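Dear colleagues,

As part of the handover before I leave the project, I'm documenting each prediction I ran so the next person doesn't have to rerun anything. This entry is a single chain, and its sequence is reproduced below.
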Amino acid sequence: MSKRSILPVGSEPEDRFGPLPPSPVHRISTDADAIAIAGTLASKFKQGAAARDRDRLLPWKEIEDYTSSGLGAITIPKSHGGAGVSYETLVKVFEIICAADPALGQIPQNQFGVLALVQDIATPEQRERIYGDILAGYRIGNAGPERKTKAVNITTTRLEQTADGLTLSGQRFYSTGSIFAHYIPTRALDDEGRPVQAWASFDSPGLTVFDDWNSFGQRTTASGSVQFDAVPIDPLLVLPVHAFAEKPGLAGPVSQLIQAAIDAGIAKAAFQDMLSFVQGNARPWVDSGLENASDDPTILHEVGALAASLHAAQEVLYSAGRTIDKIAVEPVTAESSALASVAVAEAKILTTEIALEATEKLFDLSGSSATRAKHGLDRHWRNARVHTLHDPVRWKYHLIGNYELNGALPTRHQWN
């Protein structure tokens, strides 16, 4: 793997290695194995999460550990050598990892969204190639929307047929995980003006990844910029996403389901840290007459309300996964695709709200001492506030209301 030029935040340009060459990965075979492995990894990832956030240390080793565990391949169908786990299991895996470190957990999100798109519209030959590479330890990143366009769905990036073959040119942002990826897919327009998804290899000439992500939350997702300067593209790694609008599929709902799972993980972590801090550090209010903050009836009320909201959000999230599981076993229709989008929208609303509420209440119930930098608890609120902006939850209410009241099917794209 050749070196690429990467610009770390707050420093001078330097050369750093991107992803290591793929190495053998563990073959997960069951849903139970996936859950157990996620739990084992989460215990390790949690230990350094606060320090990685504080010092903005990208999780190079942790991502290699994640890949070698086999979790990155769990949705590949059994017919192609994968575990073919349920979508309910997928969201639980993401929730487990993100409760330990949601920035690290967000990095592989695009891999699963892209694999869902592959399932929807790729040819058998493309599936064979892509599934085989993922099982061999390759990682898929993402080069997201363009930064200075008037809307996120406007694309000026071009895939052009030249005398030397297909080449990709353009600049993208919100490229979560691309520093760690062997393949970086992005949206482009082909010579006929049709939207396609083109996959560039990380070590291709003309490809540069810039680590210029400087948000106050999800600080180590490396969601920066990718520059494509006439990057050569393998024709086999071009997906006709223009067909996505015409053909009902599940790529959009699956992508959104993962976003909701990340928020659920953030909420779960904040809730657990709040319980620990109240039990071990918080002092009772002077007017309570109590010796322990954990006996304060006002705190008990708030904790009970948070627990109910968290468990409700989790169950609606898992239910949305089960809904997609049921739909996926039959040919997907416009109606069933819409049902999946609505189910996931309901989960997205509840996980967004509990992530924001739990990370805010953490401080309200724990007291001012919880704000001390050494505890690193502010990362929960920062992560929730940033990640829940991925797409506006107010439009999820609109989607559900329009569906229930007017029978309107949601538009099909990666955010529905």
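The two ends are 36 Å apart (CA to CA). The first strand starts at residue 4 and ends at 6.

All the best with the project,
I.
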